[in-house]
Amino acid sequence: MLIIPEIHEMQRWSDSARRDGNRIAFVPTMGALHEGHLTLVDRARQHADLVVASVFVNPAQFGPNEDFDRYPRDLEADAAMLHDRGVAALFAPNRDGMYPDGFRTTVHVAELGGMLEGGARPTHFDGVTLIVTKLFHAVRPDVAVFGRKDAQQAIIIRRMTRDLDFGTEIVVAPTVRERDGLAMSSRNRYLSSEEREAALALPRALKAGFEAYRDGERNARAVVKMMRAIIESEPRVRLDYIDAVSTGSLEPVERLGAGTLAAGAVYVGSTRLLDNWWIDDDGHEEM
Ligand code: AMP
Questions:
Q1: From 34, 37, 124, 284, the catalytic residue
Q2: Which band of pLDDT confidence, cut at 50, 70 and 90, is reported for residue 195?
Q3: Which of 62, 75, 116, 244 has its CA at a distance of 20 to 30 angstroms from the CA of residue 49?
């Protein structure tokens, strides 16, 4: 596996691979990899001849009081895992390469970034759309794979690539969980064992809502109320939001059905965790 730190070199590699007739699939990450990320790599391989992954902790998507400085970084371990999973090239740019002096440009998807995560993290998705645009211009992928764990992110990126004619297909892959149901996340490393246990309130609440839906409940307000009560019954967890929204507009829905996303975020100590379930446009549900 090639490790490529420079944008121009990444572009040259991709152009040459494509000239040789290869389809390129891309998995962008911030590193500190776990099985959730690696499953995206497996999924990417099903869609292309060559898989490119990236590791870049993107300062633009962190707010001023967030965990950018302490975000876990271990490029060597990440590279070993990606190599073992058959990744052809790892793009690992540095901060100055991505954001040189004088950088001014923004990429903003209207409205969708203001809901859910956007409440606590108002500038977060502008940082995400900016870095994904830059990474896509470096890697020039035919297809890119994102995780459903960050459902709002996947929805916003799909909107951006359609609105701006990127020509990159966006594939969204299911959430990979620990055995006890906690969604895998690089931030789970921050949790003490007591916090780790308290964090289960989030998947427990979502699962109860998911099962209520499966049992025929369609009243969104009733399901959201039940999920909220379960989280609020765990005193070691602070609820940020829990809601059932449309996957198109991210506005709250009244009835659960095709195109509903039920998503929540909690703080456990100073660690912020996300989780969700959703019903796709064809009515298939997944948590
Ligand atoms: P991150 O490194 O947290 O920015 O995540 C990189 C990609 O991995 C994003 O598309 C995430 O949605 C995805 N991802 C993170 N955790 C999981 C998980 N538990 N299951 C599936 N995908 C995930």
A1: 37
A2: very high
A3: 75
